[in-house]
């Protein structure tokens, strides 16, 4: 048994604020509306049952009885603060609609559906999880329901459990999966409707219909607390450059939001590097330029933010990875040869001879340690594990080398001492902010309403999130409407596209306008730890990047 | 200019709570009391002017006029949350005692005294720093005032500035230095009195007179927030072992406090490892045992806390370091030879032949990367930089190796995947907790009172810290009374001893009593982010390890 901290106990008592419409829960009627699907019609044949549905919102109607529902819920993929509140919101709303409704939770992710492993979610159980972090009430997992056998098993599970609806809390992949399950269940005459809930701290599940996924707010605030603390320490000691890597998969939303919250001296934005086709050396030189300029002002300290997925945006790096994946595949003799070598330099020398000229250029710019990571840390399919490349250390090394060369040439007289940081796991299971607590509780309610309305193949939305809760609106949009064909392993597959940072959007412009001053001066902002009590401008704020939506 | 976050702005308005006695500031009179010095009389000849002074507390007397004072203040060493509040407390108290008093701040640490570089500290300047983190108002530094020239320069600076008192905010070394400066100034007929303030997040400046140094509370709460978040993530994903290194120099106070706050599966306590004379292999096996036992219960995740100074407590490691320091000293040819080698394995092989049997045993147990750190990352004196050894990665590697061997022997069937974390710089400049804000503000007031009372060579104290502020008491004890002769580089030097974790103390017993359950079960506690508003049991708590003092 875990012991509850004082703050956890106080948070248990927090009552999430609901958008006004949800106060009339039992009197609401669904309103069907046309909306602008972004999915091309070429995908239609894949979804004969669920294509072309209308969007759903809710309006106050007459009080009417609601049938008891049996609903299953599952947490899919990486943790995000607020997951427990989606479940409590779902439970509370189902109970309000009809006290005989039941909620069950599939254990440890979609694998729990396939294996039909579930527990009853009761009010008693939920007592310990209200407004709490983590996904531990039922666990999460990364199993994908992909094979025909898995689909059959999932159908069997929801049928045996006699579920009216299945709520899938997940990211882009899980919601794509939800679209296919919805189609499959309907095709097989199952009564189980599938409803998705947009989750991911990465912020890349974001489109015309979803303003932001839940968890992003708390994760960014947690990282920004740390970044602010580090920046103040840098300014106080005037000794170190901090190279701070931030979680967030491929897109740079987290880095952008954290930068807007903390005003570091520099932030790398993957999407910008991609657009400008920068090489590793270009990026290194950008950082070096900053450091040299600051040194000329007597400043040998600073803070640089690096998104986790940065190297995947560097074209020459992408090519290097692609070549390595081919060279080191199990049908080639090279991995075995390399594994037999004791010496990192020899291993690097061996592979170097096999790479294209462009890839060699990139490879040779890497420190030996990173070369080793690329040659040794491989996933079960033999692919390079890009997320394991410690890019914060990579840039520390390349920058150091470049600065040493400049120092020799008399062009740099500063002192360079650097510290690597990585913030990621710290933010995924944190106590959800008031924003995420409220948002998730509303998402849970919305999922219940959609289930009650018989909606199948929908994702919940809560909108107007940059405004106070009193102005939030809720509803659902068809999952098929946000699909897009994407090339994956040579095949075209419909997926929900990962949203990248919009280089024409207001948050990015805001960043670029401030960047020159942030680089030269110490404009650091210190957000401090998330506060749960206090005036709304302190305790109830939403992410800064949301401000470009409605203001 | 930095931009103030909303929370920073709210914190500016916070009014620290003062111990009741300090509300009568202008009416207080010093009370001199005997106390039990822990310094041996052999040190007396070093301090003819300041030896044998009495302790000072304050009692309510008659209102009397106070002379204006001119006081200098300096921040020395690593940042600790609350430093700015010592300065605001000092300033406010000096102003209350006599509005014509003045405060100046020496810039960037004790080096600022030697160079006589200072700024005026005014009410206007302080407006932006009340209850804020960092040391950036005047900066800090690690220069030690040691040489005769430095002593002369310091005397010249305080004399030219016509200072009545010099307040040194620092750790054990800086307060030892303060004792010597006090003696030196008095011997040279300077009117400048020297007063120390106990600062360090490490918690090792702690003795019969000082319950805890400031900053420890905020730093531990900040680290515990992160550790709790990580633990909840571990429990949710059930995938990783987190090896978390915590700052705190040699002593394990921070690790102990954070463990009591978060209940990790395991915490290494350096003092215990030292007492039990454990080898690197012993410690590795302790961790492996935990992992194997948990795997047997189907648990392949967990949280292990590792104090920064851990390896200095492992006797064989200490010997290895000592031998390396001799071998690699500038008068030996080995460093040069090693630097000329391209290959890490060759470098390790070279030095191996020169080590004693015991040191080789330890050296060979290390991963190649750590070996390289020991051979390459050296300070300007050629010494191994122990604090740079990434012990969290060291143990990840040694544990992995041992588990692989057990798996081969069929004795371990778990899955081991580990993540390294390091929390340090994040906690040093954080927004001070209410505890540290109040404590530091009271320390600043106490320093002003001691300066006003003409005390020289004293350290400020605030006691009863585990109780509400209303029960806190304040005063000063002579710095010479807490000195102790210590061997440093073959010479006996009087120093303030670093306090280690007391293996007979209540906090350690508390830890040991809980440890078996923490190891097997998931008793994690999630403290969450520091809250500044709310009921006292949430917002005004003091460190857990303080509880053994008075309860």
Shape of chain A: globular
End-to-end C-alpha gap of chain A:
46 Å
The average pLDDT score of chain A comes to 94
CATH class designation of the largest domain in chain A? Alpha Beta
The structural domain count of chain A equals: 2
Q: Could you please describe the fold and organization of this structure?
A:
The structure is a homodimer of 551-residue chains. The first copy, chain A, has 21 helices and 15 strands. Chain A has 551 residues and is α/β, with parallel strands linked by helices. Chain A has a nine-stranded mixed β-sheet with strand order 1-2-13-12-7-6-3-4-5, sandwiched between helices. In chain A, strands 9-10-8-11 form a four-stranded parallel β-sheet, with helices on both faces. Chain A is globular, with a radius of gyration of 25 Å. The two termini of chain A are 46 Å apart. The mean pLDDT of chain A is 94. At the A-B interface, helix 1, helix 7, strand 11 and helix 17 of A face helix 1, helix 7, strand 11 and helix 17 of B.
């Amino acid at each position: 048994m875990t012991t509850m901290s004082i703050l956890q106990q106080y948070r248990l008592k927090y009552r999430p604020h609901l958008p006004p419409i949800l106060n009339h829960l039992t009197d609401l009627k669904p309103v069907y509306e046309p909306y602008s699907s972004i999915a091309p019609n070429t995908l239609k044949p894949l979804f004969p049952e669920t294509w072309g549905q209308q969007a759903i919102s809710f309006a106050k109607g007459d009080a009417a009885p609601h049938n008891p529902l049996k609903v299953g819920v599952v947490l899919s993929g990486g943790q995000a603060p607020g997951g427990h509140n989606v479940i409590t919101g779902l439970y509370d709303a189902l109970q309000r609609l009809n006290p005989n409704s039941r909620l069950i939770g599939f254990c440890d992710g979609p694998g729990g559906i396939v294996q039909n492993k579930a527990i009853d979610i009761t009010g008693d159980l939920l007592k310990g999880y209200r407004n709490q972090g983590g996904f531990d009430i039922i666990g999460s997992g990364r199993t994908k329901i992909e094979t025909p056998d898995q689909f059959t098993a999932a159908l069997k599970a929801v049928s045996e459990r006699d579920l009216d609806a299945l709520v899938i809390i997940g990211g882009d992949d899980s919601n794509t999966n939800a679209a296919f399950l919805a189609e499959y269940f309907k095709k097989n005459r199952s009564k189980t409707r599938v409803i998705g809930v947009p989750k991911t701290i990465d912020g890349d599940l974001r489109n015309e219909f979803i303003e932001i996924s839940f968890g992003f707010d708390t994760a960014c605030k947690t990282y920004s607390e740390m970044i602010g603390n580090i920046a103040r320490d840098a300014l106080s000691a005037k000794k170190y450059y901090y190279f701070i890597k931030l979680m967030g998969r491929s897109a740079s939303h987290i880095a952008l939001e954290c930068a807007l919250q903390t005003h570091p001296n520099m932030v790398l934005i993957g999407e910008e590097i991609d657009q400008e086709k920068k090489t590793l050396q270009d990026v290194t030189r950008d950082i070096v330029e900053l450091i040299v300029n600051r040194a000329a002002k007597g400043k040998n300290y600073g803070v640089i933010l690096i998104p986790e997925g940065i190297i995947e945006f560097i074209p020459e790096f992408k090519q290097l990875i692609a070549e390595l994946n081919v060279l080191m595949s199990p049908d080639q003799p090279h991995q075995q040869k390399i594994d037999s070598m004791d010496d990192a330099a020899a291993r690097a020398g061996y592979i170097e001879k096999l790479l294209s000229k462009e890839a060699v250029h990139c490879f040779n710019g890497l420190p030996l340690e990173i070369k080793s990571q690329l040659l040794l840390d491989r996933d079960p399919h033999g692919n390079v594990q890009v997320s394991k490349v410690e890019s914060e250390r990579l840039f520390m090394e390349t920058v150091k080398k470049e600065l040493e060369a400049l120092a020799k040439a008399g062009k740099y007289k500063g002192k360079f001492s650097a510290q690597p940081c990585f913030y990621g796991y710290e933010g995924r299971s944190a106590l959800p902010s008031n924003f995420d607590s409220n948002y998730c509780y509303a998402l849970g309610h919305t999922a219940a309403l959609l289930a009650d309305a018989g909606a199948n193949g929908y994702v919940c939305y809560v909108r107007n999130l940059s405004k106070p809760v009193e102005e939030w609106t809720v509803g659902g949009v068809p999952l098929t409407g946000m699909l897009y064909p994407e090339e994956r392993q040579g095949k075209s597959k419909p997926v929900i596209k990962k949203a990248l940072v919009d280089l024409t959007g207001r948050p990015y412009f805001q960043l670029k306008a401030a960047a020159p001053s942030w680089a030269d001066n110490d404009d650091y902002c210190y957000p401090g730890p998330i506060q749960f009590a206090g005036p709304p401008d302190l305790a109830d704020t939403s992410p800064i990047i949301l401000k470009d939506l409605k203001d």
